[in-house]
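Review form for a predicted model. The reviewer records the input and the model, then writes brief findings.
Reviewer: anonymous (R2)
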Amino acid sequence: MKKPSKELTAAISVPMVLSILSQGESYGYDIIQKVQTFSDGRLEWTDGMLYPVLHKLEKKGLIYSEWRTAENGRKRKYYRINEKGLAHLQEEQANWNFVNGLFGKLWPKISG
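Model under review:
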């Protein structure tokens, strides 16, 4: 099965990141790995795809970040969702549920 288009991947980036962070705080590499796991390998995000999304969410006040030193001595920036981000995620979920229902009505049933 083909990977989703760049346009679709971009459209789902904000709700994906917020959904992952709603499950607990995380850092960049871990978020990338979770995207790949949840998508069964069909989405392969890079740093160049993820960090602009994280910066946008932080600028909008939907997430917080904090630098910490990991056990290996390297610094990592951890991200967590806040109340405003959770409210935005609820709006995103409602929008995606609407779109999913709409296409469920419009697309023909194709039997394979």
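Findings: The chain has one domain: 8-98.
Further findings: The mean pLDDT is 93.
Recommendation: see findings above.
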